[in-house]
Write a structure and sequence with these properties.
Number of helices: 9
Number of strands: 13
Helix content: 25-40%
CATH architecture of the largest domain: 3-Layer(aba) Sandwich
Order of helices and strands: HEEHEEEEHEEHHEHEHEEHEH
Radius of gyration: 23 Å
Structural class: alpha/beta
CATH topology of the largest domain: Rossmann fold
Strand order of the largest sheet: 8-7-4-9-10-13
Length: 308
């Protein structure tokens, strides 16, 4: 008797991750614009649960919404308004540029195979898409290198999970990256205020990246940045002469003495991380540093548990 084979894309949601995501929820911190009634606060006001403000009574308003206490005290006819709840619209933006191919010797494993930064990003995006759609919210996907490679519009039907997983599974590592330009393009294409999650190693000009993040903030999106780096990129543990290959194809392979450049490299990395982290803090965006040697399950639990 033959057994049913799961589609290859479903491997992006292994059982140990599915078990975690079924127990977790995501609540938006900013008020969202959606199309369905849900769990997140909306900037629109109606007649729901949480009181917002009064407004003057107008012909056609339902008299049952009059605030009789205010009328008794001030002889004013006012209506109670409440914060409506809405569904959350999430856009997952995943970097598939050449530098995301790096795996390293310390990488976390899924299915007993070490994860490159790109594979880690795919699993992370798949897990978050499943989480949002499981709780009745919408999720969309953008993959990019120096331009947008795929764009899946936001949807909340259960079939949307499969569509996102297929796009992630089929995504191949590209060449050079242009994070700033791509993010500006995506910010212009998202039609309503929502949640934007960027998953990238951010190997690009920090000033361009920060300017693009401000574009999302200007459009009143809630923003989360998962900054993926491998252990080797964070600690530069090499000791003897090494040959370093540019995964984005900009330069030829270089032979370098690591001990001669380690201090300068680590200082530049700390400065880069601090600039991105500080910029996110000023925008009240979440900056989430991720070391790809940490199992994905632990990364999800740490962030989502701390957020809750």
């Amino acid at each position: 008797m033959s057994t049913l084979q799961l589609p290859e894309c479903m491997k992006l949601l292994p059982p140990e991750i599915m078990g975690v995501m079924k127990r977790l929820e995501w609540y938006a911190r900013k008020r969202m614009l959606g199309t369905l009634s849900g769990r997140h606060s909306s900037p629109d006001k109606g007649f729901s649960v949480e009181f917002a403000e009064h407004r003057e009574y107008a012909p056609g308003d339902d008299p049952k919404n009059l605030d009789w206490r205010v009328m008794a005290k001030s002889d004013r006819h006012v209506i109670k308004q409440y914060i409506e709840e809405t569904n959350l619209r999430t856009t997952l933006i995943v970097d598939v540029s050449g530098s995301m191919q790096f795996t390293g010797d310390f990488a976390a494993k899924i299915h007993d195979a070490p994860l490159s930064k790109l594979q880690y990003a795919k699993h992370l995006a798949a897990s978050l898409a499943y989480l949002f759609i499981k709780q009745g919210d919408g999720s969309g996907l953008v993959t990019f290198d120096q331009s947008i490679k795929s764009y899946v519009r936001c949807g909340s039907r259960p079939s949307q999970v499969r569509r996102i997983l297929e796009e992630l599974h089929d995504a191949k590592a590209g060449q050079d990256t242009d994070v700033g330009t791509v993010l500006h393009t995506v910010a212009d294409r998202i039609p309503k205020r929502g949640l934007v999650i960027l998953i990238s190693d951010l190997f690009d000009d920090p000033e361009k990246i920060i300017a693009a993040l401000h574009h999302f903030d200007f459009r009143q999106h809630e923003l989360v940045v998962f900054h993926l780096l491998a252990e080797e990129e964070l600690t530069f543990p090499y000791k003897s002469f090494q040959r370093f290959r540019d995964l984005e194809g900009v330069q030829e392979m270089l032979r370098i003495d690591p001990q001669a450049v380690r201090a300068a490299y680590l200082e530049k990395l700390r400065d880069f991380v601090k600039r991105i982290d500080t910029a996110c803090g000023k925008m009240r965006a979440d900056y989430v540093p991720v070391n790809t040697k940490i199992p994905l399950r632990d990364t999800l639990l740490r962030y989502l548990g701390g957020r809750k």
